[in-house]
Specification:
alpha+beta; 5 helices; 4-stranded mixed sheet; 8 strands
Amino acid sequence: MALTRTQMVEEVRFNIKRKVTGYTNERIQIRLNWAQDYLADLHVYEEMRKVYVGETTADQLRYGFPTRMKDIYSMTLQDGASSRPLTYVNPRHFDRSVPRPETASTGRSSWYVDYGVNFEVYRIPNAAYALNLRCSIYPADFSSDSSEATLTRKDNLIIAIATVFCLCQLRELEDAAYWGAEMVPPLFDASLTSDHSAEDWKPVARGFTTGADTTLTGQWWLNPFTGRGNVPGY
């Protein structure tokens, strides 16, 4: 069962051995948020992976990414049988090839440029098209005493990291080193196994060829290069 923010604060307080008068709840709450963000920086957990459905606007080039987005995995433009994936183009390469997108005719977009908190599509849409976005999202902060961690089944790890942050601020460096070296690493390693591993996936063997004809033809016993690619003179 997931812990509430109040319960997590009490766990951290027990670890740092400080009363409210010596270390406020608000400071612990801040470090719980830091701990969750720190984890999200280290690894993209499956609960951070989201699918969003947006929409283009006719004659509009630039759009905003979802709040707290970390990485984008793919984006597709939905238009029935004409649906297509949007291909990422490096901003510098795009600007060199299309310095002013507005001068081109509008239509169904085929490319997108990821730049900061916005992205641009090209060609500029001529109508409203649905956009399906696969991305990862940073977890939401603890917003109230009853709120729970966005990261699933990682309360003990969040508490351990928050404990390290608190002890470092309190200059309890020996205790911080203990928690940082002995408690956090095994909990983090265990958290990496929490993502489901797609056990239903079955590998399919596929043939591989370089395109060269490796069939042994001719009098191979007289010529070691016979049938082993295009060798000049043979």
